[in-house]
Amino acid sequence: QVELVESGGGLVQPGGSLRLSCAASGSIGSINAMGWYRQAPGKRRELVAIASSGGTTNYAEAVKGRFTISRDNAKNMVYLQMNSLKPEDTAVYYCYFFNSRSFWGQGTQVTVSS
Question: Do the beta carbons of residue 83 and residue 66 sit within 8 Å?
C-alpha cells in the first residue's frame, strides 16, 4: 500500500506560478513512476506530467515549456513547478504513483483566475 499526500494548490492569477508537492509513504520500492494528473469540471482526468525513478519524464503537450516535474527519490517526493499559468489549467490536480499498482492522492485544487 502507498499513501500520497499533496500540498501547494491554491488561487493564482493568469501568468503566475505555483508549486505542487506530493509525499509518498508505504511500500515504495526502488522502481516506480510518480506524477501528476488533473481533472477539470466536466472533463476526464488527464496526464499532466510523469517521472520514472530512473529519470525519464513525460509531459502533456498543453503544459510543455511551462511545467516542470521533479523528484527527490531519497525523500519519496515529487514536485510540479507550474509557471505561466492559464485559466485552462484550472483543475483538481492528483498525485499519482505506480509500481505494480496505481495509487492516487486526494487531489488539490488549482484555480487560475483574475
Answer: yes
> For cell 490536480, what's the residue?
93
- The stretch 10-33 carries a mean pLDDT of 93
pLDDT tens for residues 64-112? 999 999 999 999 999 999 999 999 999 999 999 999 899 999 999 999 9
d(CA 68, CA 72): 13
Buried b (16+ CB within 10 A) or exposed e, 61-100: eebeeebebebeeeebebbbebeebeeebbbbbbbbbebe
CA dihedral 21, 75, 72, 57 (to 10 degrees): -70
Q: What is the rounded average pLDDT of the residues 51-76? A: 95
